[in-house]
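(Fold this chain)
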Amino acid sequence: MLLLVSSGLCAVYQTMPRSALAETTTGVKAYHIPAQALSTALTTFGQQAHRQVSADPKILDGHQSPALNGNFTEQEALARLLAGSGLTGRVSGNVVSVSAISNITLGPVRVGGSVTRQDPTGPGVGYVAESTMAGTKTDTPIMEIPNSISVVTKQLMADQQPQNVAQALRYSPGIMAESEGTYGNGSARGADTGIMQRGFNTSQFVDGLMTNSTSAGETAFLERIEVVNGPASVMYGQTTPGGMIAMSLKKPTENPLHQVSVGFGNWGRYEATFDVSDKINKSGNVRYRIAGIGVTQGTQVDHVDYHRVGILPSITWDIDEKTSLSLLGMYMYTPGEGVASQYPRVGTLFPDPSGRTISRSTFLGEPNWNTMSDKDAMFEYQFKHKFNKYINFSQVFRWENSDRNQRTTYWDGNLSTSEIALQPNLYHTNTNTVGMDARLFGEFSVGNVKNTWIVGSDFRQYKYNSNYMIDNNEPTLDVYNTRYDYSPCFTWNHGGCQLNGYVYNSSYFQEGVYFQDQIKWKGLSILLGGREDWVNFKIKDNKSYTNQNTDNVKTLLSDNTKTPEPAHAFTWRAGLVYQFKFGLAPYFSYSTSFIPQISRNYQGQPFAPLTGSQLEAGIKYKFPHKDILLTAAAFHINEDHYLITDLVHPNFSADAGRVRSQGFEVAANANVTKNLKVVASYTYTDIRYAKSNLTDQRYNPHTSSFYGNDISESGMSVPDIPRNMFSFFADYTFHSSVMRGFGVNFGSRYTGFTYADDVESFKTRPYVLFDAGAHYDFGQAISTLKGLRMQLSMSNLANTYYETMCSHGVCYLGQGRRVYGNLTYNW
């Protein structure tokens, strides 16, 4: 119904008389401004346009403006006044902001203690974003939201040059960004990147809708990334209590944007990108943007390559002052994304008896059976309409499809300290998602009490289809003297093949209805919200086949096709923030989450959804009239209905478990001066099995054997989650003397030890990594090279050898020294 309503609104506006549209969209006025100093001309422009002009006097010094006489729209008049100055301007509401053109689209420039309101889905300013849509689905200052939210701005991504979302989140509080999902090859993987948030797996959302697309990790198409720590189910449905990652795709800009870039790096990386946005018609109410990327490279692992091409076109139509429609499409083809993931624990975390360590470049697989290709397609529209000052309507719809074909081999056990067994597999998956979120929202006041309300509904139809085969004729490999000679055997009607096959086709439909009210009285802000979700599952096929030890036969071993019962849950949250006039804002909140479970107990009854709850208290401090934001948060999370072993029926699970995560985070995002930008964070996370009837033996990693009696997992730390993480990154750009236009940056990341099993038998090693880079703006020294920028970025500068996580048998190796440089031109 909401989709039909929005489509109807579009149709109504399309049939409006052209004269009526012209009155609301063109805004043509007569201007008479003589040629003079640009600062004076902008003042006169503000008077004639009846707008407030916001600009830093320093960037206006020395610039002259041409004469302006005639009838123009405000944006056209502003563009003519700024022509040839190297500056750009934007009309937003009653404010005109002027800033210097940079290599990325930034927000407004702060002047005299006031600033135009930032776009809550835009790139931010420097390393600081002041408002967000992710936390409340309304344009809300971060200072008014009673939970921890951090933003990776476009400038921060430009300075660090991450190649996927996990790398972009390395300096974010509460995030363990890279575990097994990175596969050691540094490719731009999507929603399967192994990101952990406050100790739990996280979910990724693009423009407010959950995504499972492998293309979600392509930073070349993102405007910003937001980390919402803590339960987010009230706004987004089924999410873990750790939080969610929100990403915003690039959309047409109000000011023209033209950018091309070529890049290079170690492991044979070559990259080309472009990003162009401009108006389509004369008035500028129809604009386009198109971004693209092509990249090819090897990786730190022999025989593993990575290739990708992708394009993201979009169009925005400002139908009138109150109505806007944006259409986005995306296609991504990744023909090369080989896997290099697991390494034996002996030879990585611990040297082998001869003292040898496995090189990061060693490929533990079969080169002739190591391909992974992805095809991703997406269509999205965003519709907005303002009925009046009290009621607004917004709708986002997206269709996405991902197809993956995989021929790989995995570690399947140690045969000795130097020889391993490999498990070849043939794998095809297809995922298809249709999602929509529609909401009514607005503001009203009762006396001195301001209410920002929202009521909405969303749905998600997700389909997953997979076919999986494994070859039980497992090849072996000497990890110190690799000799590859595997011949694939994946034919059912072949007596020499010993295959197991699996077919799994499932889908679910999730629908939710939510409401929220943000109540503000003087410095006090109160947030209240609730949501009801319904989830219906459908499992079409859940079968396993074999032709092991048989000739020309495919035998059905099992057919476990069972459709789980529908699930539903109510989640809610409440919080309050008090903002003092000197910039301090203490807050407190309580929130809940849920995730449905599809398994059943021994009686065939479905389990209740995983439910989480969190208490969070913290403080935020925004330096008055400066872009410096400091935050601190302490949290206590319980997740219930964690499944544990049924002691009476050990082949089934029982519902009694609880996982508890508690800790605190401290973070800083600061544009300290015009020259210096800084981000820093510290995270302490203590996550344990608070309640469990599972037991296990302790493991001796030196003898590769278990010892002692079984002990309870209750009270033990959840493996692979570091207690302590610290990061710091700073960028300094020179604006004077002979170094003008040159900048340098440096960062450090510390990750503490993690336990490798469920009974704290042994630990992985802590590690410290260093990042560094430099950039140079040629236009600062040579006017004819204006818009040309060169950059060099290096991660893991010392080429530290480290493991991101380990278990009894295997470890995952982190990425070694990565060097990447690019040359970017803007005009």
Remarks:
- The chain has eight helices and 46 strands.
- The first strand starts at residue 29 and ends at 33.
